[in-house]
Each structure stands twice: as structure tokens, then as C-alpha cells.
Specification:
By secondary structure, the chain is α/β, with parallel strands linked by helices. It is built from 17 helices and 7 strands. The strands form 2 sheets. A 5-stranded mixed sheet has the order 3-2-1-4-5. A two-stranded antiparallel ribbon has the order 6-7. A hairpin with a 3-residue loop joins strand 1 (7-13) and strand 2 (17-25). Helix 4 (123-155) packs antiparallel against helix 9 (214-244) and helix 6 crosses helix 9 (214-244). The termini are far apart.
Length: 410
């Protein structure tokens, strides 16, 4: 097999150690390998950089192991060309697995061009990605505290979530503060409701009538304090994010023009994908990278699976959330696509398809710099009038009507 890199290295990275293998090929039969172990402190990583330079190494590959690869990358990226590799892409022959064998195997695959590099964003995008992910994590934790408050209320037989859409809304928060303060009279509690609450006073009266103990009050107050603290932390992240987003502001504003995509979703897309679309040869490559297209699994001429890969924990959920919002925008192309696919494939597959469409649209918007122009809710009817007519006629026949259609006069 042809050797593409005569001098290369494989790095097996761990928390406290890096096993490096340098592979030097003089000819097809003259291959020399040298293995050495280094620590992960700054002094040791600088020694690793010098060791690679001494051997004339031009490129090195390392496995994406949690966060342990990041400091190694930061130290070596100016000294040698680096390639980050997904562990799934270079599995060794089973058995005899050691750190040395992993480093040697990485070096061999790299020398023959059998590794596929993972996408490592530039530093400015890494800052945006870190902040958007931090905000999402804090929002999840905030939601967990709300669920815990609802659990405490159920334990106290206070059915607040049965009559209010949002327990942490104005009315819910006022009632919770009243319960924490020791108020037990349902009549006094329902006086705290907002005029916009649709539930009647009798329903609210029965909902807040429970058995609240001191333990319940303590835990509700504890969760409210944590909820507020997380809210302040999210505000701090948003302030920091606005500064980091400055180079990507125009791209984020373009993405907001897509139905279902708000400011938060647009910032997440920019943080995960970036604005340089030249790294993706086509929109299909971007959908595959985001795990929003069926995987290729064919044997003996038969497709064995068309399920999407279980990956993309940051970008995929955000796009699916945006897709649900887009499916409710009346008169839009994305809603028409959702309804069309839902009838044949079900809501879950339809919403994933809409999420893939949002990512495809985002790709073209950031590539061309143009704002989004909706195709309209009647797009599919326009492109195939005969099929639409037959579908409506068939539906009328199923309802018991006799239908005869004639083309309209020009």
C-alpha cells in the first residue's frame, strides 16, 4: 500500500500520559518506529513537541478522548500538523490492546492515509461553542429544579401544575412564595393569581389546597434559590456570549430569518457549525456530520438500516426543537413539508426531516450571504398539480361524494 506520509506520528492520549509513536519510512522494506511515553504537564508536552521536531515529524494523529486531547492540541498545533480522529474510525484487531499498540496502529494508518480527520473549529468559534453549550447545560439544570419543585408539590398534594401551564410563571411563583412564607389559606393564595390565568377560582382553590409541611417549605425555598442563581448565571453567559458573537453577527442575523429559528438557536448553529461552509463540500456532507441523514448500511444489494446515527448531542436537539417551532408556522414551506411527511412516515421522522431542511437552508444562507425566502405552504401543490388533484378527489370519494373535475378556463 502506498505511503503518503514518510515521517508521521500516532499519539495515544490519556489523562496523565501520552504514548507517542514516530514512524519513519525510508523505503517499503525500511520502516523504523520509535515509541516513547510523556506526561501531560506543560513541561512534558513541550518535551513531546521537541521530540517530534527532532525526528522530522510532519504530521501527527491523536484520538478524540474526552477533553484530554485539548491541551495536547493547543501545545502541538504550532509545531506539527495535527489530525483529530474519532475512536470509531480506527479500531484495531481485537486482542493485545495496549497503549503502545494503539499509538503504533495510529501511526501506521496515518502513514497510508487511512484516517479521516474530525472537525476542530478555530479558536473564535470554540469560544462561541463553549458559551452556547454552557448556557444549554445551565438551562437543563434549571429545568431539573422546576421538576423537583413539582415533585415536592405533588408530595404535598398541591396540584399547581394541573391548572397552570408554567409553574414558574407569575402566578405560580407568587403562590410558591406564599407557601414558603407559611400561608395555608387557599383563599389568600388564589388572590395572588394573574388576571390572565384561564383557570377558574374554584379550580385554583382546590389546586392549592394541600398538606404543606415545614420540610416541603424548606425544599421549595432551596430549589427557588438555585433556580434564581442559575438564572443569573445564564444572564452572565449571555453577556459574555454577545462579545464572542461579534465576528458571527451577520450569519446569526441571516439564520433568524428561517421559520422556527430564534436568537438562541441561531447562536447554537453558529457555535457548532461555524460560518465557513467551504469545509463541507455540500449540504449533504453537513447533514451527515450533524447525524441528520440515514446512515449507509448496505449488504448484498439490500439496505439493512435507514436510521440516523445516535450522535450529535449538541446540534441535533437544537435543530429538532427549531423544527417543532417551524412546523407550527402557518403558510410556510417547512410546515407543508412536515404535514406531507407526517401523513406517510409519522411525526417523529417528519420532524427529523424538517430539522435536516433547516440545516440545509442554514448551509446555503451562510454560503451565499442571502436572506431566507420561503417557498410557501402551497409549494408541493404547485410543483405537482395533478398529484394534488388526485389526492383531494380520492379524499372526497372516501367521504362519500361523487367528484368530477374539469380544468378552469384560461
Amino acid at each position: 500500500m502506498k505511503v503518503l506520509h514518510e515521517k508521521c506520528a500516532g499519539l495515544d492520549v490519556h489523562k496523565d500520559s501520552v504514548v507517542a509513536c514516530v514512524r519513519i519510512a525510508g523505503s517499503e522494506d525500511d520502516v523504523r518506529q520509535e515509541v516513547q511515553q510523556f506526561g501531560t504537564t506543560m513541561k512534558e508536552l513541550l518535551r513531546l513537541s521537541e521530540w517530534l521536531a527532532e525526528h522530522g515529524c510532519t504530521i501527527a494523529a491523536m484520538e478524540a478522548t474526552g477533553v484530554y486531547w485539548r491541551p495536547v492540541w493547543h501545545v502541538l498545533e504550532d509545531a506539527v500538523e495535527l489530525m483529530l480522529v474519532n475512536a470509531r474510525d480506527f479500531r484495531n484487531v481485537p486482542g493485545r490492546k495496549t497503549d503502545v499498540n494503539d499509538a503504533v496502529w495510529l501511526a501506521d494508518l496515518l502513514a497510508h492515509g487511512l484516517l479521516r480527520a474530525s472537525f476542530v473549529p478555530p479558536e473564535a468559534q470554540q469560544d462561541v461553542r463553549y458559551l452556547t453549550r454552557t448556557r444549554r447545560q445551565l438551562s437543563r439544570e434549571r429545568g431539573h429544579h422546576v421538576l423537583r419543585i413539582q415533585k415536592v408539590l405533588e408530595d404535598a398534594n398541591v396540584k399547581l401544575s394541573s391548572v397552570l401551564t408554567n409553574v414558574m410563571g407569575k402566578t405560580g411563583r407568587r403562590v410558591l412564595e406564599g407557601l414558603v412564607a407559611g400561608e395555608t389559606d387557599p383563599t389568600a393564595l388564589i388572590k395572588r393569581k394573574d388576571p390572565r390565568v384561564k383557570a377558574s377560582e374554584s379550580e385554583l382553590h382546590e389546586a392549592v389546597r394541600g398538606h404543606v409541611t415545614e420540610r416541603h417549605r424548606f425544599e421549595i425555598q432551596l430549589r427557588l434559590d438555585l433556580f434564581d442563581a442559575l438564572g443569573k448565571a445564564i444572564d452572565r453567559v449571555d453577556v459574555q456570549l454577545q462579545g464572542a458573537l461579534e465576528p458571527f453577527r451577520n450569519a446569526a442575523n441571516l439564520l433568524i430569518t428561517i421559520p422556527g429559528v430564534g436568537q438562541t438557536v441561531a447562536e447554537s448553529i453558529v457555535g457548532e457549525v461555524g460560518i465557513d461552509m467551504t469545509r463541507f463540500p455540500s449540504a449533504g456532507h453537513l447533514r451527515s456530520w450533524a447525524c441528520l441523514c440515514p446512515r449507509s448500511d448496505m449488504s448484498a444489494g439490500k439496505h439493512r438500516s435507514t436510521r440516523t446515527r445516535r450522535a450529535g448531542p449538541w446540534l441535533k436537539p437544537v435543530l429538532v426543537q427549531a423544527a417543532w417551532g417551524a412546523s407550527r408556522v402557518k403558510g410556510s414551506y417547512l410546515r407543508a413539508q412536515f404535514l406531507r411527511l407526517k401523513a406517510r412516515r409519522g411525526a417523529k421522522k417528519a420532524i427529523v426531516a424538517v430539522a435536516a431542511s433547516i440545516l440545509t437552508i442554514s448551509y446555503h444562507l451562510m454560503r451565499t450571504g442571502c436572506a431566507y425566502k420561503d417557498l410557501g405552504g402551497d409549494y408541493f401543490d404547485r410543483i405537482d398539480k395533478d398529484r394534488a388533484a388526485r389526492r383531494h378527489v380520492q379524499r372526497l370519494k372516501e367521504l362519500g361524494f361523487v367528484v368530477q373535475i374539469e380544468p378552469a378556463a384560461a
